[in-house]
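Structure (tokenized):
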């Protein structure tokens, strides 16, 4: 009897909606009371700093000195909406970069008098802005849930394996700390599977609520680069490493995402597997992980 051919990631595409997991969201406008309660102190603080600022640069420098960190980050988000929408949020969040940001972007800041006029024209709390800030609150949460469930599944199905990495939030595994003379020592991965102390697979995990266009191209391009780098290193050092890309969520069903991931898997047959959580018991086996 001929051996049954293992299903590839591409083979699941027709019934892809059955193989993804969905994280629950929150209903609008039900979230508004909680959003206003959480972010009203942020808007009040922003208003106080705004009243005492003699310029928008002065306002931002005052925000940069605000403690605790959570409050400072929220104030930066409000600042971006009112004063400098072109300034990247991640850049604004870096306290040490405050002066550099003002030097580079300060000329484009909206005038402080205009900011105050616009701010005072809005109700307190501003439901619309609170709703926008609320959207940031759980950003990344679905990804944390995904990796936590991955760790649980691996421990249940593969008791002989050790899985390392951030189970939820935390520092990624850097391959330069795992392998000697790794070509890109700061290459981060989300998890590593080991058997008897020897790494057998490295993996990346992502939850896609929605994705498309340039973001879609960026993600698959990053995956290809990572897989090529890891597998070339493994070949040079005679290491039987595999690469696992755990992707889940409805974003997989959009555009060419599923097909693009299938191409990545097919580029190195037997060495790369793309899976959703529901596929792990069926597609990831100890035999495959330990094969050479």
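Design, position by position:
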């Amino acid at each position: 009897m001929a051996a049954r051919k293992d299903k590839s990631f591409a083979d699941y595409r027709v019934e892809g909606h059955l193989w993804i997991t969905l994280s629950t969201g929150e209903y609008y406008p039900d979230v508004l009371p909680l959003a206003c309660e959480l972010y009203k102190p942020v808007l009040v603080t922003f208003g106080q700093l705004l009243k005492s600022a003699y310029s928008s640069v002065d306002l931002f420098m005052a925000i940069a000195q605000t403690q605790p960190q959570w409050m400072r980050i929220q104030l930066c988000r409000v600042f971006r909406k009112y004063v400098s929408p072109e300034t990247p949020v991640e850049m604004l969040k870096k306290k040490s970069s405050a002066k550099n940001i003002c030097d580079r972007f300060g000329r484009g800041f909206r005038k402080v008098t205009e900011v105050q006029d616009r701010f005072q024209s809005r109700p307190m709390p501003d439901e619309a802005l609170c709703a926008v800030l609320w959207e940031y609150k759980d950003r990344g949460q679905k990804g944390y849930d995904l990796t936590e469930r991955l760790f649980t599944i691996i421990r249940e199905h593969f008791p002989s394996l050790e899985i390392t990495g951030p189970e939820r939030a935390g520092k990624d595994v850097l391959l330069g700390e795992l392998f000697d003379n790794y070509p890109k020592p700061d290459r981060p991965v989300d998890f590593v599977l080991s058997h008897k102390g020897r790494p057998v697979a490295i993996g990346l995990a992502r939850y896609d609520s929605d994705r498309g266009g340039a973001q879609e191209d960026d993600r698959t391009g990053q995956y290809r680069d990572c897989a090529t780098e890891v597998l070339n290193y493994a070949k040079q050092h005679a290491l039987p490493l595999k690469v696992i890309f755990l992707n889940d969520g409805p974003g997989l069903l959009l555009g060419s995402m599923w097909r693009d991931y299938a191409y990545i898997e097919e580029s190195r047959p037997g060495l790369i597997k793309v899976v959703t959580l529901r596929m792990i018991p069926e597609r990831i086996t100890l035999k495959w992980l330990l094969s050479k």
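Reviewer-requested clarification: The radius of gyration is 23 Å. The chain has a mean pLDDT of 87.
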